[in-house]
């Protein structure tokens, strides 16, 4: 039971967050509350015209050996669809004004949640996919990470413990084209807010693993040289892409050895970030599957901050 015609909708790639159409995946469980709070916040912030809410039911196997039992399950499942549809409408009505707000559509699919949500996203042409992320479970964030990895569009992951507000936005910067897209998206989003958020661009650098006697410098001197070099590159980056944005700040921090992800996660926690905006590597089929170790680690660790992955 899908609300959209089975025909893919193409849309041009954009670095701005011009959201007319949301696709919201609901699990019909506890994690939905945080998702719907954020949906409500977005409808009060952005000129959203339409929202589709999608839920995926388990698929009944028509080739199951016990044909009679399977037919009973099939009939029961169709009745269950109507029940779930009513539950979806009731749940959403507490957060979105159906009469004065955006147009609402409801879609119930059967099968694998990952495949069905991706198919709904392709067919609908939605500008932004929202998906919740349960915390404290063994498979924490697996579906959300897979959706981010395979989706061709922007994806907003909303952890169960996140806040539906935008006061502080963190944008990790490595001076690459995808970090440019992330910064431009954060700036465009901030321009739509009546109360502007603080945007913190952060670059994390690591000192090379060399002994001071080999480079004839002390650790402190080597660190100073690298910091000055990074600061110059960072300032040039900000001057190029955010020169006239008064709410953009930059922070440069040094990490020890190992993955940047834990350092970035701790930084966002310490700054009480409400949103992290990350740029994905690219749009090709291979690049879509390679989020990068930093993004993967951050999505695994993060259970409190909403994360927008821009493609």
UniProtKB/TrEMBL annotation:
Residues 167-310 form the UspA domain. Coiled coil: none annotated. It comes from the Bacteria. Pfam families: Usp. Belongs to the universal stress protein A family. This is UspA domain-containing protein.
């Amino acid at each position: 039971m899908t609300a959209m015609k089975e025909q893919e909708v193409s849309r041009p790639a954009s670095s701005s967050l011009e959201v007319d159409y949301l696709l919201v995946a609901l699990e019909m469980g506890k994690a939905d509350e945080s998702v719907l709070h954020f949906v409500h916040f977005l409808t009060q912030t952005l000129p959203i015209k339409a929202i589709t809410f999608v839920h995926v039911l388990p698929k009944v196997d028509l080739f199951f050996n016990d044909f009679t039992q399977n037919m009973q399950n099939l009939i029961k499942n169709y009745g269950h669809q109507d029940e779930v549809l009513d539950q979806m409408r009731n749940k959403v009505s507490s957060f979105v004004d159906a009469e004065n707000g955006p147009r609402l559509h409801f879609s119930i699919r059967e099968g694998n949640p990952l495949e069905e949500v991706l198919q709904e996203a392709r067919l609908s042409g939605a500008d932004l996919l929202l998906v919740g992320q349960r915390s404290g479970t063994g498979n924490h964030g697996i579906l959300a990470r897979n959706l981010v990895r395979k989706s061709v569009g922007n994806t907003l992951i909303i952890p169960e413990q996140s806040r539906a507000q935008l006061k502080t936005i963190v944008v990790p910067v490595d001076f690459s084209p995808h970090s440019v897209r992330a910064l431009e998206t954060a700036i465009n989003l901030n321009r739509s807010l009546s109360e502007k958020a603080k945007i913190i661009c952060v670059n994390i650098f690591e000192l090379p693993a060399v002994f001071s006697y080999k480079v004839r410098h002390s650790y402190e001197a080597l660190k100073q040289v690298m910091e000055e070099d990074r600061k110059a590159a960072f300032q040039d980056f900000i001057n190029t892409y955010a020169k006239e944005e008064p709410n953009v700040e930059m922070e440069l921090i040094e990490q020890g050895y190992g993955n940047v992800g834990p350092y970035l996660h701790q930084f966002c926690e310490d700054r009480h970030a409400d949103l992290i905006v990350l740029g994905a590597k690219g749009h090709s089929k291979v690049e879509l599957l390679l989020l990068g170790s930093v993004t993967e680690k951050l999505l695994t660790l993060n259970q409190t901050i909403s994360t927008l992955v821009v493609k």
